[in-house]
Each structure stands twice: as C-alpha cells, then as structure tokens.
C-alpha cells in the first residue's frame, strides 16, 4: 500500500479491543523504533501489556478505553518538532501493520518511560487494535494551509498529504509556502504546535521527497 493510502486510512482511535499485539508485529515495531532512535537521537520507548498509564481519571475523561500498549517519545525539551516528525513515521508504520493509534498530550497517567537527566516525556501515542477505524477529521482548504509562487503537481500532492495529518485538537495551525523551488513551513502557534509542525513536515516529505525548511 502506498503512503498516501495509509495516511487516508489512519484516524485517531481512543477505544481498543482486548486483543494482544502479536509477537511478529511487536518485533517489527521494536526494530523500526530502534532504527529511528539511532537516526533521531530521541529515546522512544514502546510498552506492551501495560494498562496502568491509561488507567486514570484523566484518561477516562479523554474517552480512552482499554489502552494497554503505548509509545512514549522521550527527548530534550527542544526536540518537540523532531518528536512529531519521527512519531508520525511510527504511527504510519503501525497503521500499515493493521494497528490503530492516537496522539495523546495530557490525557494519560504516569508512563513507565525511563527519563534521563536533561530529558522529558514529550508526548505519548496509544497503540492497539481499535474498536473502530476512527473517522476522518475536518480539514481546512489547501489555500488556508499553504501557497505556492508557481503551480506544481508535487506541491499539490504534498499539501493533500499535509491536510490528512493529525494535529492537536485538529487545529491545523501551520502554513506551507513554496517560493523559488524551496518549501518552508511555519507554526501559527497553538497547543503542541511544534509537535504538529513535525507531523505535517513528515507527511509532506514522505509523499513528495522534497525537504521542508
């Protein structure tokens, strides 16, 4: 399946089946995360069969049910954009493996992540077999999300991918620009906006092969 099809299939899921993630998928996810940690210098950790992180009032308030697996993204406090970029890479890999996910900023309890001096827990991603496949989020129009000084097919493809990207409370507070052949993206503020910026940059680069500054 191509990457755009995976992006279109992937939606946020908060309720999960009581189904264990099978061993072969765990091995594939673990190897993928190890490779990403080596490349990104983040300290991403995956936890399976660990229900305590989401067994809290705040998690139930966030409508999370039966979350027993999660990915903790740990890094330096300035690594938020990187956390979004590489975290979304993992999210799409999990979708390809037939699993469902949700980015979780605050509505979780204490994680089991090992956090060394100078590091912090940047964000968590819930993981498992969803009760449903979730629903698409509403999206702003392409003209609200970016502009180009010339019409190019690849920029339009990239912007379609960007519109499919998850953002905190679906705020989509970012703006892409193509100028003199270079693509830039900036955050327009909002909650967890640097993580969102990393997520949308990954979507654009994965589909177009063009680097975003």
What does this structure look like?
The structure is a single chain. Helices cover about 35% and strands about 20% of the residues. It is built from seven helices and seven strands. The strands form two sheets. It has a four-stranded antiparallel beta sheet, with helices on one face. A three-stranded mixed beta sheet has the order 5-6-7. A hairpin with a 2-residue loop joins strand 6 and strand 7 (about 180-185). Helix 2 (about 25-40) packs antiparallel against helix 4 (about 80-95) and helix 6 (about 155-165) packs across helix 7 (about 195-210). The two termini are about 30 Å apart.
Q: Judging from the principal axes of the Cα atoms, what is the shape?
A: globular
The fraction of residues assigned to DSSP E strands is 15-25%
Question: What number is the mean pLDDT?
Answer: 96
Strand order of the largest sheet: 1-2-4-3
Helical coverage, percent range: 25-40%
Total beta strands:
7
Order of helices and strands: HHEHEHEEHEHEEH
* Structural class based on helices, strands and sheet pairing: alpha+beta
Largest sheet entry: 4 strands, antiparallel
Helix count? 7
Q: Low-confidence parts lasting 5 or more residues at pLDDT below 50?
A: none
Summarize the structure.
The chain has helices spanning 3-9, 23-40, 57-61, 80-96, 142-145, 153-163, 193-208; strands at residues 45-47, 69-75, 100-104, 120-128, 146-148, 174-179, 182-187. The protein is an alpha+beta fold. α6 (153-163) links the parallel β5 (146-148) and β6.
């Amino acid at each position: 399946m191509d990457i755009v099809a995976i992006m279109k299939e992937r939606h946020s899921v908060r309720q999960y089946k009581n189904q264990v993630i099978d061993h072969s998928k765990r091995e594939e996810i673990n190897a993928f995360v190890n490779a990403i940690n080596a490349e990104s210098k983040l300290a991403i950790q995956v936890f399976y069969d660990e229900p305590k992180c989401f067994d809290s009032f705040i998690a139930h308030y966030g409508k999370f049910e039966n979350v027993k697996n999660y990915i903790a993204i740990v890094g330096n406090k300035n690594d938020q954009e990187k956390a979004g970029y590489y975290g979304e890479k993992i999210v799409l890999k999990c979708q390809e493996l037939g699993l469902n996910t949700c980015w979780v900023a605050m509505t979780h309890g204490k994680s089991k992540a090992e956090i060394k001096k100078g590091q912090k827990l940047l964000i968590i991603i819930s993981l498992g077999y969803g009760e449903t496949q979730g629903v698409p989020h509403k999206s702003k129009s392409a003209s609200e999300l970016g502009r180009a000084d010339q019409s190019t097919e690849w920029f339009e493809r990239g912007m379609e991918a960007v519109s499919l990207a998850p953002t905190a409370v679906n705020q989509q507070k970012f703006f892409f620009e193509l100028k003199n052949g270079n693509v830039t993206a900036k955050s327009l503020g909002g909650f967890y906006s640097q993580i969102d910026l990393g997520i949308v940059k990954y979507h654009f680069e994965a589909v177009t092969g063009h680097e975003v500054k």
